Amino acid sequence: xxxxxxxxxxxxxxxxxxxxxxxxDGKVKNAWSSGTMARGFEAMLIGKDPRDAxxxxxxxxxxxxxxxQTASARALDDAFGANVPWGGDLIRNLVMGAEYIYDHLIxxxxxxxxxxxxxxxxxxxKGKDKDLLAVKDKIVGLVRAGDTFPxxxxxxxxxxxxxxxxIVTMAVKxxxxxxxxxAKARNMGAxxxxxxxxxxxxxxxGVTSLPDINQVARFRTMLDEQKKFVEEVYIPDVLLFGxxxxxxxxxxxxxxxxxxxxxxxxxPRDERGRDLVFPSGVIIGLDPANLKVQSVDKDKIVESVKYxxxxxxxxxxxYNGEQIFDLDKKDxxxxxxxxxxxxxxxxxxxxxxxxxxxxxxxxxxxxxGAKPGAVARHAARAVETKLVIDACYGWLDQLMTxxxxxxxxIHDTKHWDPPESGMGSGFHEAPxxxxxxxxxxxxxxxxxxxxxxxxxxxxxxxCENGNRGQYEExxxxxxxxxxDNPINVVRVIRSFDPCLACAIHLIDPRTNEIKKFLIE
Amino acid sequence: MKKQTSRSALQxxxxxxxxxxxxxxxxxxxxxxxxxxxxxxxxNKLMEMDLPKGISVVEGGTDGFRLLNIITEADRxxxxxxxxxxxxxxxxxxxxxxDVKNCPTGFKTSVHxxxxxxxxxxxxxxxxxxxxxxxxxxxxxxxxxxxxSPEIKGKVPxxxxxxxxELNVTSDK
Lengths: 520, 173
Fold this sequence. Notes:
- By secondary structure, chain A is an alpha+beta fold.
- Chain A has a single domain (about 5-515), classed as Orthogonal Bundle (Cytochrome-c3 Hydrogenase, chain B).
- Chain A is about 40% helix and about 15% strand.
- In chain A, strands 1-2-3 form a 3-stranded antiparallel β-sheet.
- In chain A, a hairpin with a 2-residue loop joins strand 2 and strand 3 (about 25-35).
- Chain B has a single domain, classed as Rossmann fold (3-Layer(aba) Sandwich).
- Chain B has helices at about 40-45, 70, 95-100, 115-120, 150-155, 155-165, and strands at about 25, 55-60, 75-80, 90-95, 130-135.
- In chain B, strand 1, helix 1 and strand 2 (about 55-60) form a beta-alpha-beta unit.
- Chains A and B meet through helix 5 of A and helix 2, strand 4 and helix 4 of B.
């Protein structure tokens, strides 16, 4: 008899997500992924000046503001017929490049690493390294004071957890170092964006402020420091864990899923946009020995609402999508719609990008026996962080060259006014995966607006033909020997870096205590 | 507009600070969910005011982690946010970080699971935790919309006054 367990809410992710799994013989037999928070901000864009869209959509989410701003500006570029000058594209790329660095670092260290180490092993560190002893003192001190947030609460460590005191203490030191690097990286996007979070500079047609040499130099200095950390700490850590203590998880391919991958492609290295850091492509039913990548046809994207709390409708292309809730719908179990490519569920994100681009490091890991799954996702994320950093140097050099050219431009001012009517789509490879925005314009106002976000692809519920979404499928067969400790389930889900936020964040203390602080 | 005269918040005794302490007023919230964005609206108003040197106003959106740089650089931090305490909409709460961090039921502050208070607390891991006070406002409406409800909009001047009182700063604007 299968036993059903519910994880609600999934913690250390961005947003509200509920996971139900049915366990039989120590393995997951069936799974349901439910986004438990209504979104639908698109509705408020209808009737607005289209130029507002990039600003408003940047408020969809406190985490992914710049990616929405970028996808939105690109959808408007398309609809307005604007041609972003290479200078504008370079600055957009640099802003988004910075985003990758801190998003991926925080995901590995602050959100995921604690799934793989037994933090209490720090107390057994017997070495003499001064820095590591300081970490030990700090953690032991926190435990004594009964104040171990953010290191707890946690699931019980299992057979896959690393408990070697040397490795764990080093990992905790890197956790703290990564936090410092993150605080610094925050300032990088602001060099171009004017502020952080919620940049000001990305608009239809390009960017708003001309760069100067000091900005280039500041960004380069900060980039140098991040590059060093990524090369000397982040990538070695991921490889050490992935090919060492976690190799068994990698070999088992825990968290694989459908083995279908989609990347829209992004980040041109050159003005003509022929050489992309992340090429676009689709893989259906991955066969590593015979890797076939097809080209992407965006007209094949539809969203199904069969199992989502929206008014019954057949699957439609995002241009025609709507947000009418139906909370009483039979069989519905999520606020997340189910996007499908040519009717098929897809995984988007770092692993999809690295497989589509046939990245040699990742393919080599696969060749050695690591099946694409949770561990491979962490590896892909680390590898692509380095690719983006390297590309940033190229963009900085090109920007310096562009700036010295007479008539240097960052914006297509001729296309600033909205067209009478039109439609456009904008795509971006956000850190979490393929992101698309679609806009329709009528009488110079927004007639319809839809965003299909990366976590919608990954976290989607079932669709018309009953196919599970990628989270759901990736949980099938995952070992859960102890139903009270579903640590492998959270490892798999967190490996996707879920972000379903896009909404409320208010302080909700869940305690009556707060009432005593009433002052008026 | 009169020039600010009261600077007591910036004065130090002894020689602890070579530079004056850095004071940050941080308004957070989601601008798209009416009163959830009250911190953002208040911060935007404060930015238009002529505040003494050494006080920065930051409008922080909804993700705590994104603000780590700002938090770790502050000595004194005033956070303005919507707070669900269960009392009448428009109620104003005031508490310090240490008042709530050991609440028995714990703090679940944000959809991000790691919310603004957790991140402030976490800043201690990489340096110092600023002395933090939260001015919280019980929201009336969390519907989609970029405007505050009339009830909460009416409270904005008072919230600004309370924030400035924290810093012993007066303003007639």
